[in-house]
């Protein structure tokens, strides 16, 4: 097959690797508009469950990536200065650029060609001529999807919260959600270590908090300075670092149809999952596995693309739905902080998507469940 992939992120690279490893005769080229050593953001995170899926599908890839990851067994919720460690929530993280560099080396070793700083701007571009399959893995703002929204049945719901993706030189002990009440409103920091000396430090606020803080009128350094002041106790003197960091809103993207003709969407181009559930990279790589598997039973491209959507839709939709419930929980974090004790707040966080029952909470962290039952005795009678 002649396969052309738009976008050198995890989805496109991993699909290229799977197809080339299965059949070295495939003619596969990946077009990436950025330089090899460029990326935005800082680290990416995987839950233990996400890594279990990867291991089940591809033990070799799991073993290839794991030595480069920082791992920890617990999640921490900080309600101002009260920190609650919650067991049964293991995670691993790696720098986004390091992950991409590892995947670049892997696919190139297999014989896939990657053309960096190459922008393909139309489906009629000469680079795509004669392709049996065109994979649009070019991110949440994919031009392929944007130019063919009717064909894909695209919807995009721009959510009101504001977030900015920073880093810091402080290596945190676990994935932590730190919520701090300020005169402007609640500031939330999503932070986790992704290398021995670096952490992601993503700051999220509700829209009215963003307005009251005056961020609209602050430059880059003043914005960083204000965030450093809010999280001074958490940063411990370490600076906040920027990498093309700017305030943005999250687009909840969905497509009713995942392909047309020989063109298929993959990764964030297909759908976005809010960063609060830490599943964006997982979903991208699982998309790649599912698309790869769809081509193992047939050489008919339309049939394979139809099978890809049929098999992948149910498990992916569950995560997408949970991500959208999760993002709405953050949209009400100011009100929750005002009325909840630290224990109630941590419990609310853990059960926010409806996928963790009280019985499951007792299994994961009996201490938090017991502390919640002291405040809400009726919870103990909740059936499993």
Automatic annotation (TrEMBL):
GO terms for molecular function: FAD binding; oxidoreductase activity. InterPro entries: FAD-bd, FAD/NAD-bd_sf, PheA/TfdB_FAD_monoxygenase. The keyword NAD applies. It holds the Pfam family FAD_binding_3. The keyword Transmembrane helix does not apply. It comes from the Bacteria. Keywords: NAD, Oxidoreductase. Residues 3-315 form the FAD-binding domain. This is 2-polyprenyl-6-methoxyphenol hydroxylase. It comes from Paracidovorax wautersii.
């Amino acid at each position: 097959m002649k396969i052309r992939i738009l976008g050198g992120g995890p989805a496109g690279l991993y699909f290229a690797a799977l197809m080339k490893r299965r059949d070295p005769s495939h003619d596969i080229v990946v077009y990436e508009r950025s330089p090899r050593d460029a990326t935005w953001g800082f680290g990416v995170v995987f839950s233990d469950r996400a890594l279990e899926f990867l291991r089940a599908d591809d033990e070799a890839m799991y073993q290839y990536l794991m030595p480069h990851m920082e791992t920890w067994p617990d999640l921490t919720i900080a309600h101002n200065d009260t920190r609650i460690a919650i067991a049964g929530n293991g995670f691993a993280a790696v720098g986004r650029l390091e992950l991409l560099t590892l995947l670049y080396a892997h696919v190139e070793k297999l014989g896939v060609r990657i053309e960096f700083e190459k922008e393909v701007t139309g489906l009629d571009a000469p680079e795509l001529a004669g392709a049996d399959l065109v994979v649009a893995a070019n991110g949440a703002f994919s031009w392929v999807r944007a130019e063919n929204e009717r064909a894909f049945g695209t919807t995009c719901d721009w959510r009101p919260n504001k977030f900015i993706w920073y880093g810091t030189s402080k290596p945190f002990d676990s994935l932590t959600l730190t919520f701090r009440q300020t005169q402007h409103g609640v500031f939330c920091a999503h932070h986790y270590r992704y290398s021995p000396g670096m952490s992601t430090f993503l700051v999220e606020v509700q829209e009215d908090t963003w307005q009251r803080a005056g961020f609209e009128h602050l430059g880059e350094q003043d914005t960083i300075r204000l965030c450093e002041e809010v999280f001074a106790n958490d940063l411990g003197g370490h600076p906040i670092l920027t990498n093309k960091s700017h305030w943005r809103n999250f687009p909840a993207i969905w497509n009713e149809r995942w392909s047309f003709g020989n063109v298929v969407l993959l990764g964030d181009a297909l759908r976005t999952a809010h960063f609060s559930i830490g599943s964006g990279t997982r979903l991208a790589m699982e998309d790649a596995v599912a698309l790869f598997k769809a081509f193992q039973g047939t050489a008919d491209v339309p049939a394979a693309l139809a099978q890809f959507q049929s098999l992948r839709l149910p498990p992916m939709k569950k995560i997408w739905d949970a991500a959208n419930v999760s993002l709405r929980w953050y949209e009400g974090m100011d009100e929750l902080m005002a009325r909840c004790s630290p224990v109630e707040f941590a419990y609310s966080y853990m059960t926010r998507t409806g996928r963790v029952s009280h019985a499951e909470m007792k299994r994961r962290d009996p201490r938090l469940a017991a502390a919640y039952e002291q405040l809400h005795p009726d919870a103990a009678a909740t059936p499993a």
